[in-house]
Structures are given as structure tokens and as C-alpha cells.
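Async update (no meeting this week)

Hi team, since we skipped the sync, here's where things stand on the single-chain job. The sequence we agreed to prioritize is pasted below, unchanged from the tracker. I ran it this morning and attached the output directly underneath so nobody has to dig for it. Comments welcome in thread, and please keep replies under the output.
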Amino acid sequence: MKRVVVFALLIAWSGISSAVIYKWVDAQGAVHYGDHPPDGVNAEIVEGLGVHAQASPPPAPSSAAPPKPAATAAQDPRAKQAVDADAAAAREKQCADAQQRYQKLLDGRKLYTTGDDGQRQYLSSEQIDAARLAAKSDIDTLCNNAS
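Output:
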């Protein structure tokens, strides 16, 4: 009998350990956790039992080489190109996220937010229209602005 109980516990533990937990902040600033984030919310994956992210250790302070002055780093064309490429990639990702959020707001039939009690709170037509306008404004700002 003990073997059956131990086996059942191991099976249950394996299901729990492979679960992915998301963390997000709602419009009121409350932090929520769950296995499925609500639509239109930027959620991050929380390191859990089954999720092992590769965390790099903080760099050790090195007293051998003093840091470069800011003026010299700004004058290096390779550094400027790398920064420009990183900024362009970040802008493209933000643009794609904004377009995806806007498309969800257009295609969604019953849009909702998750309340403090974890229950769905369906949006009214006015709230949906306001969210669509905000998403369209984000697209105009992030995607059409080349600077």
C-alpha cells in the first residue's frame, strides 16, 4: 500500500514540477500569479519547480582595467551601431506586441480583465473602445515613429 501512495505522490509531483507559472500586474497595480495569463497582459514566467532559467552570475568587480570614459564609448562607431541595432530590435518587438494586442481587441468577442478576486470582469463597449484607441495609439507611436 505504501508503494502505491509513494507512486501516486511522485506522479502528482511530476505534474506540479513541470507547471509554468506566470506573473502579471493588473491595471490597479495588484500582482497576480497563474498558469494562464489573461489576454492583452504582459506576463513574465516565474522560475518555478520545473522552470530552470540560465542565470548568469553577476560580473566580478575588476580593479585591473578602469571603466572607459563615456565620451570614448560614445565615439566608438561599433558600440553606437550595436546600441542602434539593439534599440531597433526592441522597437520592433514593442511594435509587434502592440499590433498583437490591438488585433486581439478587434477580434475578441467577450473581452475581460481579471479582477482582484480572480474572477473575469467583462469589459463594456466603452471600455473596449477605449482599450482599442489606446492600442491603436501605441501602434502609431511605436511602429510609425522611425526615431
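Quick observations from my side:
DSSP finds four helices and five strands in the chain.
The longest strand covers residues 21-25.
Reply here if anything looks off.
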